[in-house]
Amino acid sequence: MSKKAILAALVAATAIVQGAMAQTNIQVFYDFGKDRKHVTTTLEGFYGDKWGNTFFFVDYDYGEKVNNEKVSPRGTYFEIARCLNFWQESKAAPLSIHVEYNGGVYKGYGINHAFLVGTDWFIHSKDFRNTLNLKVLYKYIHYDKPEIGDRPRSDVPLQFTAVWGMQDLFNVKGLRFSGFADFWWEDHTVAPSDGDGNRKWEEAKTSHIVFLTEPQIWYNVGQHFGVDNLNVGTEIELSYDFGTGKGFWCRPCLGLKWVF
After folding, report:
1. What is the pLDDT of residue 88?
2. Residue 23 has what pLDDT?
3. What are phi and psi of 228, to 5 degrees?
4. Residue 155: its pLDDT value, please?
5. For residue 50, how many other CB atoms are within 10 A of its CB?
6. CA distances from 183 to 53, 134, 210, 211 (A)
7. What would the DSSP string read from start to end of 190-253?
8. Which of 60, 147, 174, 256: CA 20 to 30 A from 158?
9. Cα torsion angle, 89, 94, 96, 100, sign
């Protein structure tokens, strides 16, 4: 769900103070997407140190049905990324080496192993309240059959990623706008929706690109009654030819976040 949503702000904190910085949080969302309509939990963590930082998240979708009743998780997805930066005291401090792994499994299919490596450039305002990470990554996706007919699975094995964070948005204490956007090349099969979220596989085609962004807005509601850990918010997944869905999709969510 949130993928890299906390990354930018915490990189900023690491840049200010050397040493161990950490945050772990859990998010619980209800996904209103026509092809979903289920609860998703995300366990997310960020840990900074003198060599860089580590970010991970694990999603669980609770959409498996028996007799039309959701009874168990339907699938899970995992990402872990490491930014290596041994030169934090130099002029090249904004530049890091980024390495990442992605993968998951859902009922009936898996999300193939993906390995990424590249560069991360960190931009921030003077007070570090507004941050932006720009990444250029080589992306290798593992397939049992590396080609479709005479075509490779990816004409351009690259991914471009932007991660942003804006703290105390509009000068409202505890209001945060964050998110990420990914664009990559991958040959995959997509089909349009029938209007109810089901795929019309008779109209399927092969797509060569994927775009995905998940902006989030969180408000630290707990600050008003002495529980700063509690946040309420929303996430909107906007995508083009992502997964098996052809064309543009909008999947709004509402949720809670608890920061440990």
Report:
1. 86
2. 87
3. -65, -15
4. 78
5. 12
6. 23, 12, 6, 5
7. EB-B-SSS-B-GGG-EEEEEEEEE--EEEE-GGGGTT-TTEEEEEEEEEEES-TTB-SEEEEEE
8. 60
9. positive
Please give the Cα distance from 243 to 106 (Å, whole number). 12
Spatial separation of the C-alpha atoms in residues 141 and 111, rounded to whole Å? 10
pTM for the complete prediction?
0.86
Tell me, what amino acid is at 36? R
Non-local (6+) Cβ contacts of 79 within 8 A are 3, 55, 56, 57, 100, 101, 102
- Please tell me the predicted confidence (pLDDT) of residue 84: 96
Question: Does residue 29 contact residue 40 with C-beta atoms inside 8 Å?
Answer: yes
The token duo for 108 is 């009936």
Burial class (CB in 10 A: 0-12, 13-18, 19+), 63: buried
Q: Which residue has the tokens 């490596």?
A: 117
Q: Is 254 helix (H, G, I), strand (E, B) or coil?
A: strand
How far apart are alpha carbons 214 and 37 in whole angstroms?
A: 17
* Dihedral (Cα; 44, 87, 119, 78), 10-degree rounding: -20
Per run of 10 residues, the mean pLDDT along the chain (length 260 residues) is 47 39 88 90 93 94 73 88 93 95 85 94 90 96 67 81 94 95 93 82 91 97 94 97 91 96
At 151 the pLDDT is 52
Q: Are 223 and 174 in contact (CB under 8 A)?
A: yes
DSSP secondary structure string for all residues of 19-38:
S-EEEEEEEEEEE--TTT-E
Q: Which two tokens stand for residue 16?
A: 């200010």
